[in-house]
Amino acid sequence: MIAQARGPGRASGAATLAPMLTISPVLCEKIVAHARADHPDEACGVIAGPAGSDRPERFIPMLNAERSPTFYRFDSLEQLRVWREMDDRDEEPVVIYHSHTATEAYPSRTDISYASEPEAHYVLVSTREPDRTEFRSFRIVDGEVSEEEVRIAAGDTAVEDGPGEDLPATTTE
Fold it and tell me: Which of 2, 44, 62, 156 shows the smallest number of beta carbons within 10 Å?
């Protein structure tokens, strides 16, 4: 079962940002599968979309350079390559995601201090319970956190995998 917390909030100073994350079930499942596959370490990655669209489309699982159950950091060379590729494709990071392995899906002080993409949706997945997945989205702007609604909806947009390996599908009940 995937539990979603819903919140109407918007980050202050973010009046132009969408008040919710709309994401396909396929992308949601890919994030959860990546989080489960990397457990007990935190998983991390990006979902890119056309610049200015707020539409997550291309799933890009990334390496947690820390290989830690309590902290994540993108590998700097991989991050540079991914961000350059997004620029070349006229994309931006629509979703930046990572997992928490022993705590709730809520941004830590470290997560907040490292949030550098004010227009991105920050998705957190908690894998602390093996039979339940907590999947939440936040806006983090100038150190302020606002939870936003997550709408899982099939769209007419094709979902594409980014660089990296395909992850095995997992079932969450």
Answer: 156
- Per residue in 103-140, pLDDT tens? 999 999 999 999 999 999 999 999 999 999 999 999 99
CA-wise closest residue to 122 among 15, 13, 17, 3 = 17
| 167 in a structural domain | no
Tell me the CATH number at 83.
Answer: 3.40.140.10
Q: Which ranges of the chain have pLDDT less than 70?
A: 1-18, 155-173
Q: Is residue 145 part of a domain?
A: yes
Dihedral sign, CA of 95, 155, 28, 143? positive
Report the distance separating Cα 14 and Cα 114, nearest Å.
Answer: 18
Contact 136, 161 (CB under 8 A): no
0.90 cut: is pTM over it?
A: no
61: closest CA among 41, 53, 51?
Answer: 41
